[in-house]
Specification:
The chain is of the alpha/beta class and 485 residues long. 35% of the residues lie in helices and 11% in strands. The protein contains 14 helices and twelve strands. Helix 6 links the parallel strand 2 and strand 3 (188-192). It starts with 55 loop residues before the first helix and ends in a 6-residue tail after the last helix. The protein binds pyridoxal-5'-phosphate. Pyridoxal-5'-phosphate binds next to helix 5.
């Protein structure tokens, strides 16, 4: 049985630069001067800024150690459910740094930016093919903005047909950003509960769908990591009453090459390039959340749109029904380059394989973990699985305690207390890029943690113990943030 990584004992503390060094110490050696000394001009005299006095080695070690405090996908397993923290091939970064891309000014005329425009036009085509949708805008800069774009599109489409509606149906297994995006567009979210299998039941949708409702926002696969098997029937119910179907496709990494969303009755869907298509993310971006639509919504897509006219790719504002601009220039172009490079290097078969492996890894993990963690929906999952702390409650050990303890074993904690439909949720997404040995190590760490919950619960309540800082008072941190260090 593989063992979790042991702490190394080389976990160094790091003072501020001002607390290090000695007066007069410098990081450079100047050659002896060969001109007479002269006093500084009055403008520059005085004490000057309080720079720390450090040697070159002191500076190098300081910043190198700080860089090692960071935990990322390149450091270890990061099974943060719903976030798809997978390995991002470094070649994609390199491509974005090609001078022709990196030094490109967004206001250059079309004749000088053909390569970039072509890349975006082709990326739109690839994403349309992957989702089986008709048209795409790459402009939204994140999933949540893609959702807002989708809501605006539905609103504009219904408006163009003089249809006024004020509600949107949102299942309890939707991503948390969905109701916020709908509300931002002026719609009132109407909650519908998922059934006992963790997916939506058509009858439940039927009961709330009416002619004041603009449509449904359905996360598929949903936040329980389950595929909404009734999507086609649900889409029919929505369409029969004149509504539109929005699919939150941020979890496309589970179904690439397997499910053609456009064929399941979806009118508009967003993707998260920074999750599925390999752009490093976390800590706030940058990302890209393209919206993909069926033909009837295409006239409303954000402008500028990329068109091919007289053999030249161009940006066009000439779409009178468009909802307008959502981002400066064309969106986060660097993220688009990475997605384009990723898709081309993987190819259709590669993308399909990535999804299959993501699903395989999650199901393997689920089967292993369910022997000591409570699995509320015990059925095949997609790319992630959701557990709860129910088995540990007698010991008064919570999801938070276990998540903190996992850090002592060198793992980033999973997503916790989300989705809300599961009390004390632990949402784990291993991704396709983790090896079997690494997943086994994670399982073993979790096995130890749940054993500790029984045998030495106080150890968990005080966790983490082997990290630089111990358990933080999160309430105090939120109420009185101290950002000065
Ligand atoms: C991550 C995620 C979002 C939000 O995406 P951001 O880029 O963080 O705004 C929306 N829906 C689902 C299902 C997600 O997993």
């Amino acid at each position: 049985m593989s063992k979790p990584l042991a702490p190394t004992g080389l976990n160094l503390d790091e003072p501020l630069l001002w607390e290090m060094g000695n007066p007069g110490r410098t990081a450079f050696s100047m050659p002896r001067h060969d001109v007479p000394s002269a006093p500084l001009h009055d403008d520059f005299a005085g004490d000057g800024p309080d720079f720390p006095d450090l040697s070159e080695m002191g500076v190098i070690r300081h910043y190198t150690r700080l860089s090692q405090w960071n935990f990322g996908v390149d450091t270890g397993m990061y099974p943060l459910g719903s976030c798809t923290m997978k390995y991002n091939p470094k070649i994609n970064e390199k491509v974005t740094q090609l001078r022709g891309f990196a030094a490109l000014h967004p206001m250059l005329p079309a004749v000088m930016t053909q390569g970039a425009l072509q890349l975006m036009a082709e990326l739109e085509r690839f994403l349309a093919e992957i989702t089986a949708m008709d048209a795409v805008s790459l402009q939204p800069s994140a999933g949540a903005q893609g959702e807002l774009a989708g809501m605006l599109l539905i609103h504009a489409y219904l408006g163009s047909r003089n249809i006024k509606r004020n509600k949107i149906i949102i299942p309890d297994t939707a991503h948390g950003t969905n109701p916020a995006s709908a509300a931002l567009c002026g719609y009132r979210p109407v909650r519908v509960a998922s059934g006992e299998k963790g997916i939506l039941i058509p009858d439940a949708v039927s009961r709330v769908m009416d002619e004041d409702t603009a449509g449904i926002m359905i996360t598929n696969p949903n936040t329980l990591g389950l595929f909404e098997e009734n999507i086609k029937e649900i889409a029919r119910i929505i369409h029969d009453k004149g509504g539109q179907v929005y699919c939150d496709g941020a979890n496309m990494n589970a179904v690439m090459g397997m499910v053609h969303m456009g064929n399941s009755g979806v009118d508009v869907l967003h993707l998260n390039l920074h999750k599925t298509f390999s752009a490093p993310h976390g800590g706030g971006g940058p990302g890209a959340g393209p919206v993909c639509v069926a033909n009837h919504l295409a006239p409303f897509l954000p402008t500028p749109r990329i068109i091919l006219k007289d053999g030249l790719y161009q940006l066009s504002e000439d779409f009178p029904q468009s909802v307008g601009r959502l981002h400066s220039f064309v969106g986060n172009f660097g993220v688009m380059i990475k997605a384009y490079a990723y898709i081309l290097s993987m190819g259709a078969e590669g993308l399909k394989k990535a999804s299959q492996l993501a699903v395989l890894n999650a199901n393997y993990l689920k089967e292993k973990l369910k022997t000591f963690l409570h699995l509320p929906y015990d059925r095949p999952c997609m790319h992630e699985c959701v557990f709860s702390d129910k088995f540990q409650r007698d010991q008064k050990i919570t999801t938070l305690d276990m998540a903190k303890r996992l850090m002592d074993f060198g793992f980033h904690p999973p997503t916790i207390y989300f989705p809300l439909v599961v009390d004390g949720a632990i949402m784990i997404e291993p991704t396709e890029t983790e090896s079997l040995e690494e997943i086994d190590r994670f399982v073993e760490a979790f096995r130890i943690v749940t054993r500790e919950a029984l045998e030495s619960p106080d150890l968990l309540r005080g966790a983490p113990k082997r990290c630089r800082v111990e358990r933080l008072d999160e309430t105090l941190a939120a109420r009185r943030p101290c950002l000065m260090g």
